[in-house]
Every structure is written in C-alpha cells, then in structure tokens.
Amino acid sequence: MTPIVLDGESLSVDLVAEAAFDNRPVILSGRASERVAKCREMVEELVAAGQVVYGVTTGFGKFSDVLISSQDAAKLQVNLIRSHACAVGNPMSEPAVRALMLLRANALSKGNSGIRPVTLQLLIDCINRRVHPVVPEQGSLGASGDLAPLSHLVLVLMGEGEAYYQGKRLPGAKALAQAGLKPITLQAKEGLALINGTQIMTSIGTLTFVKALRLAKIADAIASMTLETLRGIPDAFAEEVQLARPYPEQIGVARNLRTLLKGSGLTTRQGQIRVQDAYSLRCLPQVHGATRQVLGYALDKLSVEINAATDNPLLFTKEGLVISGGNFHGQPIAFAMDFMKIGMCELANISERRTERLVNPALSGGLPAFLSHNPGIASGLMITQYVSASLVSENKVLAHPASVDSIPSSANQEDHVSMGTTAARHAAQVIDNAAKVLAIELICAAEAADFAGADGLAPATRVLYNSLRSIVQPVVDDRSTSSDIEKTANALLSGKWLKAVEAVTGPLY
C-alpha cells in the first residue's frame, strides 16, 4: 500500500479515512523533515540563551509568569504530560486514534512546533506498527488544545500509559517493546507541542464527516426505494424545478434521485394515483440537499484544520520569531460539528417520517398494516417505527449546540473555550443514530417492496434491495429485529452498499 506523505499542507479528509479505516502507512516528506529539524535547532538556541518563551522556560496557563530554568526544561514537559493525563470515559475507537496520531504528526510536520525529529518519527512509527494509545474521549474544553485526551497519547510515547497492540490492551512500554520501538524522553517544548492542538475534535470530526457523507448519499437510494413502494411521483425531481431554485446541492440530489429511479416499474405520474406526494417524498431534493450544504461547510473547515499548526507558541524560523497566539482554540471546528449534527438530524427526521408512511395503513396506499404478513396476530414492523422515533428524539437532544457553552479555566487565564470536542463527540452519536434510522427505513422499504413487487424496482434500488436481503431476510413471522437493524446500520456506515449502487448508477453526487 502506497504510504501517505505528510508535509503539513496536502492532507485530505479522504486520506485521513484511508489511514484510519484501511491502515494505510505514513511517511514524512523530505522538505518537512528539514523544517522540523531547523525549528528544533531554534528551540535549543532559545533554551541555551535563557530567553523567556511560554511553555519552554515558563509554566503553563496561569503559571505562565513562573520562570523555569534551562536545567528543568525537560522535567517541565514530563510533568506537563503526567499532570494533564486525566481524561475520562470510554476509549476512543482505534480508527479515531489512528486519525488522531496522523493529524498530530501532520501538524508537527509543518515545522512550527519545535519538536525533535526523533519524537515525530516515533509517533509515525506507532501509526505504521499499529500501536494505538488508549485515549479516553472525555475531558477536553476544546481550547488550549485537547489537552487531557492528547496527554494520554503522549504517555505511550514516553513508555507510560496504555495502548492496544495486536488486539490486546497493554502497558505503554510493553506495547512499544512488542512493536520493536523504544520510548523517548521529552525535551524542551515537546510535551506542549504534542498536546496543544485540536486533533481530538478534528479526528473524531473527520471520520464522522466521512460516515455522514456516505449516509447522505445512500439516503437518496433508500428514499428512492421508499418512494417506489409507495407508488410515488418522481415528477417533483425534474431538472426544471430545481433550476428554478438553483442551489447546487438541491440540483445534485434531484439528479441522484432521477438516476436511482430510472427504469422503475413502480413509480407513478402526476394524477395517475394522486396529484402530489407528501413532503417527506416530494421535498427530498430540498431537504437532503440542505443537509449536503451543511456537509459542504463541515468539509471546508475540516480541510483547513487537518493541515493547520494549532499549538502554542508557534516558531517561525525564517523570521526568527516565537509568537504566543490562539490557534489551539477549537471554535471553527466546534461550529462545524454543531452544524453537521443539526444537518444529519434532519436527514434522520425525514427518514423516520417516510418509515411512518410505510407502516401506517392510512398513509401507505394499500400496503398491509405495519407490513405484517398476518395483521393482528403478527405485529410485523410496527415497533421498528417506535425505535426510529426514539432515535430521532434523542438526536434532537444531542443537537443542542455545544459551541455556545464556555466555562473558564486555569484561574480565568483561559476564560473562553469552544467545547469543540463535545460537539464532535455528539456529532458522532447523531450519525450513528441516523444510520440506525435509515437502516429501519430500508428494512421497511424492502418489506414493502416484497408486497408491491420487488421485480418492479429500478435497477439501482434493486441492487440495494439485494444487498439488504443478503443479511436481512423478510419478516414473514414476528422475530426480534435488533440485530437486523444493527447489521444494516453498520453496512450503511461502511459505504460498501453505496459502492454497489454506484456500480450501477455511476458516482452519485
């Protein structure tokens, strides 16, 4: 597998996903290596000269006025990591930790942080040899960097903490040793350089975005199948209608729907059965398109952040400057994550309404009540709609914006924070819930197709139907469908069914 070349400038969301999900290896570019080495020389000169530099020859936060001798510069960094490693909660997933390590390495490769080349190389070696630190997901304020969770990453580089290696949770030193690696002893500036950044929120946010985009695309296909089984009217997706309100995303979704429904024997025309469909069908381009606008905003911000230097202070070797700034503040990502979870909430909301139309005999146009094969004796898929309603209701709570909150810290020196990591974590939960909501709609749509005549499905939606039927059999007799929903949601998040559909349609918007 061709390695990803880190240069601090050209990392993309897709490359982050490949490193995280597919274990693609990583190397440092030659130019980045030179920048890192030169910046490190500058740090050592500053320490030798005894210059006052935040976090190098001073304490941290409110202790920034406490001067530290050059003899204690290394001890200062070790104490920083140990004291800050107090995050709590469940460990981040291994893909998220891989993304985290990749983003941290890429930021350091810009040559503004003053880290030693050997320390950066150990971080890269951990990525390539799959030493994944145990990083608790809670405890970041999203400003001053993701300090507490990132410190757990650095503990492992020091030979402390814990890490997963070859499926086992091990002490950090043992994980490194089994991978053939040796821990480092942090030197001046290095601890601060490793934890003062937005990589927790950005790693979670980037992988969440990738999943969200997959869901947004496959949602068009699921909704198309629902429309077919309800004998819906595709006329509303005509290009003329979209050009009259020319949002590019609305136009793109409508084009997806026309492509997905091409060749369907189940759809109807205006006036054939009814003049127009309910909003959850007729307004698909407008609602799904609006979610795509939100995802576009999130992508724009993530693309900047994954190639940004976000620690403090930053060193500029050409100018000979050391500047204390605020690039660690996560406000841009906090807003993006809050916006993304709101957009994905609506994708789930409208999906649940389509599920209701499939199971409600007053709305389904002749389908059996709750898609039951023996109505009355068998409840069919009645309660799946309850689960969907529960999930979309939970999403509404999670959609409360974390970015509007701030609690001062460090004796009010750090008096405004972003809560961006909370926003990213909640966005990840919203996307997982949305996947289950869409899974329920797909299961119901496939059941409806069995009643309406699955042979009449369009070629593209027939591929999706067959994909589902490979893991979920028709609910002829009542049974627990929990595992069916979970398996379907995981398949939707993986993107494999999207690829199968796109093999028929070509790339969807």
Kindly describe this structure:
Belongs to the PAL/histidase family. This is Histidine ammonia-lyase. Keywords: Cytoplasm, Histidine metabolism, Lyase. Its EC number is 4.3.1.3. GO terms for molecular function: histidine ammonia-lyase activity. The longest helix has 33 residues, at 420-452. The chain is mainly α and 509 residues long. The protein is elongated and about 85 Å long. Strand 8 and strand 9 (321-323) form a beta hairpin. It has a three-stranded antiparallel sheet. A two-stranded parallel sheet has the order 1-2. Strands 3-5 form a two-stranded antiparallel ribbon. The model has no long low-confidence stretch (mean pLDDT 95). It contains 19 helices and nine strands. The protein has two domains: 4-197, Fumarase/aspartase (N-terminal domain) (Fumarase C, Chain B, domain 1, Orthogonal Bundle), CATH 1.10.275; 205-505, Up-down Bundle (Fumarase C, Chain A, domain 2), CATH 1.20.200.
Can you describe this structure in just a few lines?
The protein is mainly alpha-helical and 509 residues long. The chain has helices at 13-22, 30-49, 73-84, 94-108, 117-128, 147-157, 172-178, 190-195, 199-229, 239-243, 248-261, 279-282, 284-305, 331-359, 382-398, 420-452, 459-469, 482-494, 496-505, and strands spanning 4-6, 26-28, 88-91, 132-133, 136-138, 162-165, 168-171, 314-316, 321-323. The chain is 55% helix and 6% strand.
What are the defining features of this structure?
single chain, Fumarase C, Chain A, domain 2, two-stranded parallel ribbon, Fumarase C, Chain B, domain 1, 19 helices, 509 residues, 2 domains, 55% helix, mainly alpha
